[in-house]
Amino acid sequence: MPELPEVEAVCRRLRDEGLDERIRGVRIFRCATDAVAALTPGRRIERVERRGKHILVHLSGSVMLHVHLRMSGNFFRIPDHRLFSTYARTILELRGGAGLVLEDPRALARMHAGPSAEIEAAIAGVGVEPLSRLFTQAWLQAEARRSRLPMKLFLMDQSRLAGLGNIYTAEALYRARIDPKRQANVVSAAKLGLLHGTIVEILNDAVQSAVAAYSGPGQFREAESFSLAVYDREGEPCTRCRRIIRRIQQGGRSTYYCPGCQR
DNA sequence: TCGATCCTGTAG
DNA sequence: CTACAGGATCGA
Q: Which of residues 36-95 of A touch strand C (CB under 7 A)?
């Protein structure tokens, strides 16, 4: 599921469906620390915040629930906490028999709880929000100037810019016509300026799409989902230049790009 | 900075 | 069967 847009969708839904709810009980099967069971029961959900791909649920009494969905996690409300699916890993019981469930087939997701200060400290290293005012062309250019990482890895480093993952990084570099293998410090300021715009544009579009898709079977329209131009298109012709999309490995992950127009 | 690791599911 | 999966961390 989740890069920034999908995590944002989860947070918005949580705000709609979980705010002011009190956590009555906790059932941990996997993925959560004992602290969740020890600290969260009896507390009320006061605020839901996203930092990059991290979900912070502010609870009463200065305690926070910290959730990371990793590769395949999801976190949402269910009407009956006794009717959980196979992949339910941890359940927070709410009033009226409802529940919040952390679902994850791969069980890579993580949930932890602690005093707010402790949780804050734990995620202090998370970088700049790409949809905030801190993320400017000048900032991106300055950061790039002092990094020799290939652009793909440069953008995916969560301690610098927080929230881009494998898919949207590929899409942003494609739109900005930047070779993912190119070292950050040798990419032109002009290209970086363009990249800045494409990142913001792609994330905004993807948030819209994720929110629409995630609000379930829409009563009105089927949300048109974000369409991917390069990701998972190895062997297909580029729609811009007809060259064949390639897949390479970077940092142990697949990178998709067009060797024709990304340089 | 690479590779292995955490896990399970699915596609080929 | 193998390869790979929208993530992150750890040790070599």
A: 52-53, 68, 70-71
